[in-house]
Write a structure and sequence with these properties.
The complex is a heterodimer of chains A (292) and B (515). In chain A, 46% of the residues lie in helices and 16% in strands. With 292 residues, chain A is of the alpha/beta class. Chain A folds into two domains: 6-234, Alpha-Beta Barrel (TIM Barrel), CATH 3.20.20.60; 238-291, no CATH class. In chain A, the strands form two sheets. An eight-stranded parallel beta barrel of chain A has the order 1-2-3-4-5-6-7-8. The two termini of chain A are 19 Å apart. With 515 residues, chain B is an alpha/beta fold. Chain B is built from 15 helices and 30 strands. In chain B, the strands form nine sheets. A seven-stranded parallel β-sheet of chain B has the order 5-15-13-10-6-7-8. Chain B has a five-stranded mixed β-sheet with strand order 16-20-23-27-28, sandwiched between helices. The two termini of chain B are 25 Å apart. The A-B interface holds A 19-20, 23-24, 55, 199, 223-225 and B 251, 253-254, 256-257, 445-446, 481-482.
Chain lengths: 292, 515
């Protein structure tokens, strides 16, 4: 499974960032056609993104394009411009309606057919930036098979909740919990919103630790300097990796010998613990084979 | 025409420069004979006060005449008042046809353009930056500028290639008998390193100070043995332009990325162990490399031997923390460095001769493990250009680039692949400042490119496993693909600049821009 610890936003009208953004080592990049691009610049940005996609130089990054919302008449042109040229997925802002995702699913299928891309290969990531979107999180997350992740909004959401962003982020605790719950219930990724105070490294670390503990798998990123901090929070320590390796190896050994119970360091280990150990190794980029 | 070892075509003789000795190789030219020297003066106890009331009196006393060579140091950087004031006085006194031999010029010296146009200054042997550089590039001077490195300049002086008639030395503190110090006043600049050789070899030395003290002062950088006159001025410079208040590590993500790659290479190199010596500039990427290397030194409990070169507060903090045993300071960049050199005996003032001259019994750069340098552009053969811009204009000096690259065991060039839409990794650099044979690695945002002659470094980087490697061929190809072909610079035949290697051979010439 792909790691999604960090997804770096790159303005769709900035060739410098589009060409070099992937070098900062995030797990994914989001080429932005929405907020970063003025209405009069949408065409230019689509062409620019298309050209950059054609170069195919994003390395290991998961490439998504943030399209304009389903409530605009821009989203269809957006996907037509970028999907045929090799994106892993699209990120849709202000999703409130599961029906919209089915509409998008169909439109993507058409484009994939025409472009000779495997049906269903273009993933959808949903931004839930309104109270209604959060409320319907599970329905949205399970609306089509293409949905790969859901993410709560920040500024838009707090405005819709009739509150404002605070340093502690208390206003987003509820929505974040709902998103995590809905995502895991639907079997998709729970991805957290951006941390906007770009020079506050300690604040970013605290928030990342908090959302990791809630059950998020990663965060959106608005400045490259945030990437190593988020990675360090989501990357397991040597000690954790070592323990996880021993748990997974013991579980494999037990399965091979037909034993139900697993023992590690003289303690019984049950299935959820094994699952968590497997997840730790996944985050550390260690494959099952390597454990052997 | 003759061709030097880098394949650059050069004329056999250049008007205003003389016979061209082509570059042979980085360490092949061997000197012969003895060092040059100043005129001998005798001073007895009937002369115990060298102070003169103003610059004109000093010029008169020095015997300066039209056609002579006058020298200046650049420790007051963009805050300097002295160069302009001395040339204004020369102009008023009707002295002309002077050769200006500065260690460097700054933006503040654009004031000199009027004196170039009127013939007070007819030759500049030193870097020509900013507006003066543009003027020279467009053919505004009769004779070419001669560019020498920080080590090449004292080599030229000590070997007699250049004989200084009068050295004018701005001095933040001086006593009445000509002892000079770079500290102790509002105009403090720290080290007076670049002025030492001029003081020792000029026929006449005039010090200029705005902090005249009774004899003798402490913290003496240049002694009474070499100073003929002392001028008491109201102000030698603007403190705000002399030193920067603080040296901040950049937050620019691209620069941090490049710096991080460079630090990884340094950590992987065979030089990252106790006793490491290190030099970086004060620029964005260099300082960030220093930060990453410092962090790694802390983490791996490594203690360095010395930090060299232009010294910043960052290095001062490393000295205080015990990460370096000594700092060897030819130029102090900021207030922390100025304070430290005045107070800390482990922070040592060294001359440019000591720092970087290849023709002595051993200069400091030879003891250097790692240097991190910048570039305007670099080519397939790792030749580096720091002198000319993409337009072909001669706008930057050599600094210590050639010297530290020659001396250090690991020379790392850090620069982005592109600046705006201009490629910085090219097939062939427009001007050569430092030949590829003394460059070990290039670091861009795309990773680390190791000079194939350093197979050992390549092995070390591969073994470390965390150094992102990319070949020069891939890098050049990437630059080509991103920018397409560049139009060649359009120039006249006339030579406006000569770039010397530190041993006095000619690396390259710069031609006048087409009007």
């Amino acid at each position: 499974m792909r790691l999604r610890r960090t997804k770096l936003y790159l303005p769709g009208n900035n060739p410098n960032m589009l060409l070099r953004g992937h070098l900062f080592g995030s797990d994914g990049v989001i080429l932005d056609l929405e907020d970063a691009v003025a209405l009069s610049e949408k065409d230019t940005a689509r062409i620019l993104i298309q050209q950059v996609l054609k170069r195919g130089e994003f390395g290991e990054c998961e490439v998504t394009v943030r399209i304009n919302g389903m409530d605009t008449d821009l989203w269809r042109q957006d996907i037509e411009a970028v999907v045929p040229f090799g994106v892993h997925g699209v990120r849709v802002p202000k999703v409130e309606n599961p029906g919209d995702m089915q509409l998008l699913d169909e439109a993507l299928s058409e484009i994939e057919d025409k472009a000779g891309i495997a049906q269903g290969s273009t993933l959808i990531f949903c931004l839930l930036e309104t109270a209604l979107g959060i409320h319907r999180a599970y329905d949205i997350a399970s609306s089509t098979k293409r949905i790969a992740g859901i993410c709560p909004g920040g500024e838009d959401l707090t405005a819709d909740l009739h509150t404002s962003r605070s340093d502690s982020g208390v206003e987003l605790v509820g929505p974040r919990r709902m998103v995590v719950l809905a995502a895991h219930a639907a079997g998709v990724c729970a991805l957290d919103t951006v941390f906007s105070r770009i020079t506050d490294e300690e604040g970013l670390r605290e928030e990342t630790e908090f959302v990791k503990q809630l059950g998020f798998e990663g965060k959106s990123v608005i400045h490259p300097n945030q990437i190593p901090i988020i990675h360090s929070v989501f990357t397991p320590t040597e000690k954790e990796i070592d323990k996880a390796k021993r748990i997974v190896a013991a579980a494999k050994d037990a399965a091979k010998r037909g034993l139900g119970a697993v023992q590690v360091d003289g303690k019984m280990v049950d299935r959820p613990v094994v699952k968590r150990a497997e997840f730790t190794l996944q985050r550390a980029g260690i494959t099952q084979e390597e454990v052997q | 025409m003759i061709t030097n070892a880098l394949g650059r075509k050069l004329p056999e003789e250049i008007p205003g420069y003389g016979k061209v000795r082509p570059y042979e190789g980085w360490n092949l030219r061997k000197p012969e004979g003895h060092r040059d020297g100043p005129r001998i003066r005798a001073t007895f106890n009937d002369r115990t006060d060298k102070v003169l009331p103003d610059i004109k009196t000093a010029i008169k006393a020095s015997g300066l005449q039209s056609g002579m060579v006058i020298s200046f140091h650049h420790h007051l950087r963009n805050g300097d008042y002295v160069v302009n004031a001395v040339l204004d006085a020369c102009a008023e006194m009707g002295i002309n046809n002077l050769t200006l031999f500065p260690t460097a010029l700054f933006g503040v010296h654009k004031h000199l353009i009027q004196h170039i146009k009127s013939g007070v200054i007819t030759k500049i042997w030193g870097s020509v930056n900013g507006p003066i550089g543009q003027l020279v590039s467009e053919g505004g001077m009769e004779y070419p500028a001669i560019l020498r490195s920080h080590g090449g300049r004292p080599r030229a002086v000590t070997s007699g290639d250049v004989h200084i008639d009068v050295a004018f030395i701005a001095s933040p503190t001086a006593d009445r008998y000509g002892n000079l110090s770079g500290v102790g006043s509002r105009s403090s600049c720290g080290s007076l390193g670049y002025a030492h050789t001029d003081a020792l070899y000029a026929d006449v030395v005039v010090a200029l100070t705005d902090n005249l003290q009774p004899y003798p002062i402490a913290n003496i950088g240049i002694s009474q043995l070499n100073v003929d006159f002392v001028v008491d001025m109201e102000s030698i410079g603007d403190p705000a332009g002399i030193v920067s208040g603080t040296t901040q590590v950049t937050r620019d993500p691209l620069r941090l990325l490049i710096a991080n790659h460079a630090a990884k290479l340094i950590e992987a190199s065979p030089y990252f162990h106790d006793g490491i010596s290190f030099q970086t500039g004060a620029g964005g990427i260099s300082l960030a490399v220093a930060k990453f290397v410092r962090d790694a030194m802390r983490e791996r409990k490594i203690k360095g031997s010395f930090g060299l070169g232009g010294i910043t507060g960052f290095f001062v903090d490393m000295l205080k923390e015990g990460l370096f045993e000594r700092l060897m300071d030819v130029q102090s960049f900021d207030l922390d460095a100025v304070r430290s050199i005045a107070e800390n005996p482990n922070h040592v003032e060294i001359s440019a001769d000591w720092y970087a001259n290849p023709w002595n019994a051993g200069c400091a750069v030879n003891m250097l493990d790692v240097v991190v340098l910048g570039a305007t552009e670099i080519d397939r053969n790792f030749n580096v250009n720091v002198n000319t811009e993409a337009t072909g204009a001669l706008l930057h000096g050599i600094g210590g680039h050639q010297d530290t690259a020659s001396g250090a065991k690991l020379t790392v060039i850090t620069q982005p692949l592109l600046r705006g839409r201009i490629p910085c990794v090219v097939d062939n650099v427009y001007s050569v400042t430092t030949p590829g044979e003394v460059v070990d690695a290039l670091v861009t945002e795309y990773g680390v490119t190791i000079n194939p002659k350093r197979g050992d470094l390549m092995d070390a980087a591969k073994e470390a496993g965390d150094v992102p490697l990319i070949s020069m061929e891939e890098l050049v190809e990437k630059a080509h693909a991103l920018t397409g072909p560049m139009d060649p610079v359009e120039v006249e035949d006339r030579i406006i600049g000569v770039i010397e290697w530190r041993d006095g051979t000619v690396l390259d010439v710069v031609r006048q821009l087409k009007g």
